[in-house]
């Protein structure tokens, strides 16, 4: 009887809802389609474009609001969020929104912006590790403070039931904390032991476990001393060291990733007569690609159409542009200078010459003996010593007391805690954090953790020429050979081209107030030069063979006016700012400085003399550079290689430590330990000085923590170490070491 | 000493409260842009809720 009304109540309503659905569907078929289309659009939205832009000039509150407001005004942009710490803006946009108009919009309101490849920024993974470490530090800090409060009352004389209660509360806080906060140490110690190595985390883990369990045992048996505070404090200080270490690496990694992400590699492919822009990775042999003047050639190929000149200084180090015309083979990485080129791809991606060079790097890196850092050396000496000390004190006390295991274990635990590598765990990360922060402000990015230590040992410095000591941008040398009339004509011809030599000449003319002559029929002949007419005479500025001049061994362009004898204009590469200062400072530091270049003898010798470098090698091929570095290393030298080109990559990898400018090819930056972010080369000498200082600080820190142990260990060995003494020694040594690291200038 | 039965739980609760607050700041990613956050407070653009 109770079911029937309910069934009755339901029965009439069911057809009604069915009808309602039916009616709505039939009345407006589009309404039914619309929600699904909306849902489709929404799911597409989720995959919408996430665009990352680098904002090197953003620095203030106004910048944030300006950039975010301007970007949200752009069509298709849903939201934009500036991260001022990383100087980046991440944009959530609808699918199909391109980065180029957004960059242009920001440029319009006065902010430089560069597109970043979001795929190369693996921020989330590292963020998670950092947050994880921070959380453990927070837990350890909370536990440390509470247990310390309880311990102080025990030290100041709490007795019997009160002391037991305080110990039990401490245990309740400390045990879960040690289990949670100690995980990074336990995991690393276990990983080390499984591979048969005793690393620094083994004594740490042992001290944590032994201190916790002995304190628990003592508490249960109404003992006087418990080391809960020491165990928790140990994990807190060590976690701080770990976090500093992690931060330094994360900052370096994120900056290095940003440099790589700045080059979004794309190529223009001709498909069915239309130009399509595709990622370089999708190119296959046989594709026809277009390369605009000023563009980098994305894959190895043969020219099918067009003439131009290419700059292959990043590949070979030669500063002279090379002719490119139909049938000429070009390699990936060359820069097209004057005319548009059409290429048939012969090798792309992994088979291209760029990647074959990467194999050379891999070989050089595998040949490099693994560097043992100061911390590893300290751990190797420290771990066995501590274990022997603790174990022998256990045996000796067992013998003295005639079999009192509890007392002997107590002493052994006290020894382990007193010798805690707190200060050792902070000694290296604190110094490295301080030093790399200082160098970062000077424009040097330390990519590798041990790079600073290796840099401190350097006694020989090898420089590459083109792009490293020089800017790779030419300046005219012998303008005094030109009469004012010739100069005016040369300026007019040069103004018609975007070739680097022509732009340099035009800029020089403008700087001297030369008014370009008025010429007729001005036209650029890609790959050869510029031609014009004045009063019926043919005027040419360009390559030697085209103009009818003698080709020389230095970078030059040639001017011919009608039937007159051609004039040769020589160019020298302009020095990178700070190059002179860096070389002088390194020589003053009594380092052996060498110049090794793939360029011709004349240019290399001139630069070496100008900078006061006594030793130079010219015409060096990539293998020869690497061999030279290897040979010097074999003779006992510690080589610092500074280079930017692909031809330096193998040498960079085989050197003891290496630096490359940010303008270098990605491969060179990857192979080097330190990246120079600015234009100026002067910080290189500073870096060597700071690294020597940092190494000294690290050693001082080791000595300081060693000193604490020398004082405290005998006290622990004779059985006089109280938890109070352990707490004092531990915090005092950690604080001293941190303060000493901050003294770095 | 009976006052301890109140004081210890209270101090533990307060400490624990701080710890939970710290977890919350971590969870809501408040340490990702310390420089930007310190500048954002100077912005004169009024907002009811922080931008995502």
Automatic annotation (TrEMBL), chain A:
The chain crosses the membrane at residues 133-156, 168-190, 202-220, 226-244, 381-400, 412-435, 701-718. Its main location: membrane. GO terms for molecular function: ATP binding; ATP hydrolysis activity; copper ion binding; P-type divalent copper transporter activity. The keyword Protein transport does not apply. The keyword Phosphoprotein applies. Residues 49-114 form the HMA domain. It is found in: Cell membrane. Keywords: ATP-binding, Cell membrane, Hydrolase, Ion transport, Magnesium, Membrane, Metal-binding, Nucleotide-binding, Phosphoprotein, Translocase, Transmembrane, Transmembrane helix, Transport. PANTHER family: ATP7, ISOFORM B, CATION-TRANSPORTING P-TYPE ATPASE-RELATED. NCBIfam families: ATPase-IB1_Cu, ATPase-IB2_Cd, ATPase-IB_hvy, ATPase_P-type. Belongs to the cation transport ATPase (P-type) (TC 3.A.3) family. Type IB subfamily. This is Cadmium-translocating P-type ATPase. The gene is cadA.
TrEMBL record, chain B:
The chain crosses the membrane at residues 6-26. Residues 32-52 are annotated as: Disordered. InterPro entries: Cyt_oxidase_maturation_cbb3 (IPR004714). Keywords: Membrane, Transmembrane, Transmembrane helix. This is Cytochrome oxidase maturation protein cbb3-type. It comes from bioreactor metagenome.
């Amino acid at each position: 009887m109770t079911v029937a009304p309910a069934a009755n109540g339901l029965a009439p309503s069911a057809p009604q809802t069915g009808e309602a659905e039916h009616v709505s569907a039939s009345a407006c078929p589009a309404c039914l389609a619309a929600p699904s289309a909306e849902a489709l659009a929404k799911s597409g939205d989720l995959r919408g474009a996430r665009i990352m832009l680098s904002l090197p000039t953003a620095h203030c509150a106004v910048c944030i609001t300006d950039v975010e407001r301007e970007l949200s005004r752009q069509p298709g942009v849903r939201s934009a969020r500036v991260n001022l710490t990383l100087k980046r803006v991440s944009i959530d946009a609808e699918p199909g929104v391109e980065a180029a108009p957004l960059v242009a919009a920001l440029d319009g309101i006065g902010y430089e912006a560069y597109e970043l490849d979001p795929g190369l920024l693996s921020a989330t993974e590292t963020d998670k590790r950092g947050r994880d470490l921070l959380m453990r530090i927070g837990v350890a800090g909370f536990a440390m403070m509470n247990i310390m409060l309880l311990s102080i009352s025990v030290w100041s004389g709490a007795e019997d039931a009160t002391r037991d209660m305080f110990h039990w509360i401490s245990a309740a806080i400390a045990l879960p904390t040690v289990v949670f906060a100690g995980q990074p140490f336990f995991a690393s110690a276990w990983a080390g032991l499984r591979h048969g190595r005793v690393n620094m985390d083994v004594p740490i883990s042992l001290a944590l476990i032994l201190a916790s369990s002995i304190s628990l045992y003592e508490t249960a048996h109404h003992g006087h001393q418990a080391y809960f505070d020491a165990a928790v404090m140990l994990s807190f200080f060590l976690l701080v060291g770990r976090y500093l270490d992690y931060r330094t690496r994360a900052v370096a990694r994120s900056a290095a990733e940003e440099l790589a992400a700045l080059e979004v590699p794309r190529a223009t492919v001709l498909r069915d007569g239309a130009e399509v822009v595709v990622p370089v990775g999708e190119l296959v042999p046989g594709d026809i690609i277009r390369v605009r003047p000023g563009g980098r050639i994305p894959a190895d190929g043969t020219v099918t159409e067009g003439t131009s000149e290419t700059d292959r200084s990043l590949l070979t180090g030669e500063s002279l542009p090379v002719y490119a015309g139909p049938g000429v083979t070009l390699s990936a990485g060359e820069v097209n200078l004057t005319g548009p080129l059409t290429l048939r791809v012969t090798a792309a991606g992994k088979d291209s010459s760029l990647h074959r060079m990467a194999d050379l790097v891999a070989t050089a890196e595998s040949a490099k003996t693994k560097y043992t850092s100061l911390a590893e050396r300290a751990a190797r000496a420290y771990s066995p010593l501590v274990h022997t000390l603790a174990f022998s004190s256990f045996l000796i006390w067992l013998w003295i007391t005639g079999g009192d295991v509890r007392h002997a274990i107590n002493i052994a635990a006290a020894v382990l805690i007193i010798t805690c590598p707190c200060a050792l765990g902070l000694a290296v990360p604190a110094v490295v954090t301080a030093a790399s922060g200082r160098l970062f402000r000077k424009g040097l990015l330390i990519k590798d953790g041990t790079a600073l230590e290796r840099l401190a040992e350097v006694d020989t410095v090898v420089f590459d020429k083109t792009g490293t000591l020089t800017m790779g941008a030419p300046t005219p040398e012998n303008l005094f050979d030109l009469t004012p009339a010739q100069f005016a004509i040369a300026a007019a011809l040069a103004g018609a081209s975007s070739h680097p030599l022509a732009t340099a000449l035009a800029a020089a003319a403008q700087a001297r107030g030369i008014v370009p002559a008025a010429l007729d029929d001005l036209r650029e002949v890609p790959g050869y030069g510029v031609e014009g007419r004045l009063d019926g005479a043919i005027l040419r500025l360009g390559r030697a063979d085209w103009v009818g001049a003698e080709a020389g061994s230095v970078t030059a362009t040639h001017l011919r006016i009608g039937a007159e004898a051609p004039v040769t204009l020589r160019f020298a590469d302009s020095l990178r700012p700070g190059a002179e200062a860096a070389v002088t400072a390194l020589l003053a530091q009594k380092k052996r400085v060498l110049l090794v270049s793939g360029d011709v003898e004349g240019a290399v010798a001139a630069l070496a003399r100008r900078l006061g470098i006594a030793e130079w090698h010219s015409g060096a091929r990539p293998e020869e550079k690497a061999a030279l570095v290897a040979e010097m290393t074999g003779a006992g030298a510690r080589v610092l290689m500074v280079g930017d080109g692909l031809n330096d990559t193998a040498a960079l990898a085989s050197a003891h430590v290496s630096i490359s400018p940010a303008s270098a090819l990605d491969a060179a930056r990857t192979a080097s330990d330190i990246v120079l972010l600015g234009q100026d080369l002067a910080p290189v000498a500073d870096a060597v000085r700071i690294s020597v200082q940092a190494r000294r600080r690290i050693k001082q820190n080791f000595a300081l923590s060693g000193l604490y142990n020398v004082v405290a260990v005998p006290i622990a060995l004779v059985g006089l170490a109280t938890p109070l003494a352990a707490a004092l020694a531990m915090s005092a040594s950690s604080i001293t070491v941190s303060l000493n690291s901050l003294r770095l200038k | 000493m009976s006052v301890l039965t109140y004081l210890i739980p209270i101090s533990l609760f307060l400490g624990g409260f701080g710890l939970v607050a710290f977890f919350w700041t971590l969870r809501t990613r408040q340490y990702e842009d310390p420089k930007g956050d310190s500048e954002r407070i100077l912005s004169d653009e009024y907002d009811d809720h922080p931008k995502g």
